[in-house]
Amino acid sequence: MSRTKKVKTETISEVRAQLLTIADSTATVFEETNDLKAAELALKSYNGAVNAAKVQLMYKKLTGAPSMIDFLED
Questions:
Q1: What's this model's pTM, rounded to 2 decimal places?
Q2: E-strand spans in 18-74?
Q3: Dist. CA 25–CA 62, nearest whole Å
Q4: What is the distance between the alpha carbons of residues 13 and 18, in angstroms, rounded to a whole number?
Q5: Which of 2, 39, 40, 54 fits a 20 to 30 Å CA distance from 48?
Q6: How far is CA 53 from its chain centroid?
Q7: Quick check: 28 and 39 in contact, CB under 8 A?
Q8: Omega of the bond leading into 66 within 30 degrees of 0 (cis)
Q9: Is the predicted pLDDT of residue 72 greater than 70, yes or no?
Q10: In this predicted model, what pLDDT tens digit does every residue of 29-56 receive, in sequence order?
């Protein structure tokens, strides 16, 4: 019996990071198997991560906080 890791996200940054993890792993599956369903899921996950980043940018523009957004820093 395998144990699955429970994922709990509380912030938009955590959601974005989780979406990127899903996207990267399914993109890898697509590269290995050429499974179009995996490619579709990878693209949807990348799209979700981009939308989460947009939300963070809109929030910053509206509130001025946080002073720094991690994904924009190198």
A1: 0.78
A2: none
A3: 34
A4: 9
A5: 2
A6: 9
A7: no
A8: yes
A9: no
A10: 999 999 999 999 999 999 999 999 898 8
